[in-house]
Structure formats: C-alpha cells, structure tokens
Design a protein that fits this description.
single chain; alpha+beta; Ribonuclease iii, N-terminal Endonuclease Domain, Chain A; Double Stranded RNA Binding Domain; four-stranded antiparallel β-sheet; two-stranded parallel sheet; elongated
C-alpha cells in the first residue's frame, strides 16, 4: 500500500491545531466578558424593573457584541479540523465535494442467472473506474488519514459489503434452482470471503492507490514501529475491494447495472465449473445458447428429471434382493476453495451376481451431496448401468409372467 507518513502530516498539523485551539479560547473569552458585562448592568435594574426602555437599550447594545462572538465560536466548532487528511485534499475540504449523507442509493437492477457466456475467456474483466474523484478518494483513504469519518473507506465498505452479499446471493439463487440452501451458502462464501476479495484488490492493483498509515505496510526490521498484524492487513485489503465497489456504484446511480455485470463476470470465473455443470444438466441445452427452452424426450419427463441421482439409480437397477450402499472412501481431504472437510463417498452394488461392486465415486462438502454425486457418476457409466437395467427388466418380466393367472393372460392377449 502507498503510505502517508504520520510525521509528514502531523508536523504541519500540530501548529495548526495549536492556532485553532487558541482561536476558540479567544472567542470564548470574548463571549464570557460580554455576558458578564451584560449581567452587571442588568443587576442595576433589579430594584427598578419598570424602566423597560433602559433595559431594552442595554440588551440591544450588548446583543451586538454577543451575537458575533457566539457566531465565531460556533464557526470554530463546525469548521473542519486541521488533520492528517487535510494534506490529502490539497487544502480543500472533501465535504465540499462529497456530501455522504445526501448520496442517493441507486434503484435495484435485475440480477439474472449465470450462463457459460458470462465466464471470461481469459484473465479478469476490466476494472470499472470510479467516475467521481471525491468518491474515489474516500474509497481509498483510511479513516486515520481522513478529515471526516464519512470520507474514508470504512463507511463505504459497509454498504459495499451489502451490495456484494446481495448480488452474489441473487446470482446463485437464479443459476442453481435445485441446489440446497446449505450448498448455496457454501458457494456464496467462496465468492464473498475476505481471502477472495483481497485477491481481487491485489490483482487489480487497488492497494497501490490506497492511502493507509505506514504500519499497514510490509514490516521491516530497520523500522521500530508497531506494525499491523497480518490478519488486520488482510482484512483491510478485503475491505478495500468492498469500498471500491460501493464508490463505483454510488458515484453515478446509473452505474449499478454496469457494476453488477462486472461482478457477474468476475465471479463467473470463480464458479466456472459449477456453472458449466449446471448448464450441462439442463436437457437440450447447447453451449452458448442458454435459453432454458427445449422440446426433448427428457424434458417431457419433467418429474423424473427432477429426482435426485440416488433415486434415479435405485429406480434403474434395484429390485428385491439387490442393494446399493454408500460408504466413505479414500483419505480425508479439504475443499480447495473454503478449506472445509471434503467428504468422498462411493456407491456399491450387491446383487445381479456382484459383490460390493463400486459403481461410482463422488465428493462434496456434505455426505448427502457426496452420495448423490457418486450416484450421478454411476449413472454416467451408461454401459454398465444399461446391463443391470436389462437384467432388472428381464427379472420383472419373468416374475410378471409366472404370477399372472391364465384368465388374465387371455384377456391381455385379446386386448
């Protein structure tokens, strides 16, 4: 991060602070002297309250002195205090450029699902600029170096966090309609976790434009200062990205749609495998033509297509005496994105002349999903599944023939 040494700023501000304090004290003393003089003169009329004209004259005369003194004192209090951030604004009050309390919140936009076309072919999508310089300065400035807390990255980070949370939730909800709530939350965590956001900050070089205290820089042995912890530095880098997103949106209310499209593409690269897998699972879909429509035989079996892979596999090959079992396999692993325990489950067949035959393996953050992934893998092994499907059909046909009554057979033949 770029650094504004406190010494460089404080040396200029210390004398300014002293002058400011002296000025306030002088105006306060003037006000007290005037008020004291007014009190002494009014005491003379305590025993003669009927002399209204004289009292009015005294009040008017002292009011001419009290009012300017009070206004000067109020102006001293309301004026922006000389601080470390004054140097950042080149002597200008940033609040003259940006009234945070009056910033309009843009109207919401339509956040649609991902398609394979939203996945960048290479690299990161271009970083959208912040159209208002005052917003850009606020988004990249630490509160310790800002004249106004509203003019620092912390306040913008707060609303940027909300925008990022909402956009990621909407994209996932629209794209993965069959995914469990728990799995949706895991995907969202991959997108919004601090580790991911700080990587965006570094890759886009946002950190090189930030104005932060020197203790947030890389620690060196040559300098004896109290450095910010590694966790604090990482947190600040992630917050910078959220602040940048908020500033880019708020700088121009029309930017929300542009920023949401940028985030959609940025996150599309993060969830590329999941998006493509979801797209492939849509019957009749073609890469690059994701319209959710089609008229295939598979689609016409709508209810069947919606069943979990475990149910589909069971329906395909299981009869009485044939069993499928789902067991943990392999060594314990962790998810490469979230670092959470990863479950690996295999589906095994007992029956049709087979003993403990492994049909497929699947991994996921939950055992239930891992089991469904194993069943899905088994169903994709069409050759072996088709052989067991034929055995099941032959078995059911033979059983139906042997159990049918003669009269029923004659009726079936006649019909």
């Amino acid at each position: 991060m770029s650094k504004r040494l406190f010494a460089n700023v404080e040396s200029n501000s210390s004398s300014q602070n002293a002058t400011s304090v002296s000025q306030i004290l002088r105006h306060a003393e003037d006000l007290l002297k005037t008020a004291k003089a007014l009190n002494e003169e009014l005491q003379q009329f305590r025993d003669a309250p009927s002399i209204n004209d004289a009292i009015t004259s005294v009040l008017k005369r002292h009011n001419k002195e009290i009012l300017p003194a009070a206004q000067q004192l109020a102006q001293d209090e309301d004026s922006p205090r000389p601080s470390k951030a004054r140097k950042l604004g080149d002597g200008k009050d940033p609040r003259a450029l940006l009234k945070v309390e009056a910033v309009p919140i843009p109207n919401p936009v339509s956040l649609t699902r991902w398609t394979p076309d939203d996945i960048p072919s290479s690299g990161l999508p271009p970083l959208p600029p912040i159209m208002n310089p005052a917003f850009e300065q606020a988004a990249l400035t630490h509160s310790g170096l800002a004249a106004d807390p509203n003019m620092s990255y912390e306040r913008l980070e707060w609303i940027g966090d909300a925008y990022i949370y909402l956009m990621s939730t909407a994209f996932i909800f629209q794209t993965f309609p069959k995914l469990s709530v728990g799995r949706c939350a895991q995907l969202r965590e991959r997108l919004v976790r601090n580790e991911n956001l700080l990587n965006y900050t570094l890759k886009y070089g946002i950190d090189t434009r930030a104005v932060f205290p020197p203790e947030f820089g890389a620690p060196t042995k040559s300098e004896s200062r109290q450095w910010a912890s590694e966790a604090a530095r990482k947190k600040a880098l992630g917050d910078l990205f959220e602040s940048y997103v908020a500033a880019a949106i708020l700088a121009d209310p029309g930017n929300l749609e542009r920023i949401s499209s940028w985030m959609k593409s940025l996150w599309g690269a993060e969830l590329a495998d999941e998006i493509r897998a979801e797209f492939r699972s849509k019957p009749g879909s073609k890469e690059g033509d994701y319209n959710g429509k089609g008229d295939t035989d598979s689609e016409k079996k709508g209810v069947k297509q919606d069943l979990p892979p475990k149910v589909l596999l069971n329906t395909a090959i299981v009869v009485n005496g044939v069993k499928l079992s789902y067991n943990d396999v392999g060594e314990p692993k962790r998810d490469k994105h979230l670092g959470l325990p990863l479950h690996t489950v295999g589906v095994f067949l007992n029956g049709w002349g087979e003993t403990n035959l492994q049909l497929g393996v699947g991994s996921a953050l939950s055992k239930k999903e891992a089991g469904n992934n194993a069943a899905r893998a088994a169903l994709e092994n069409k050759k072996i599944i088709e052989s067991f499907r034929r055995k099941k059909q032959e078995y059911l046909t033979a059983r139906a023939t042997s159990s049918a009554e003669p009269g029923q057979q004659e009726y079936d033949n006649w019909s």
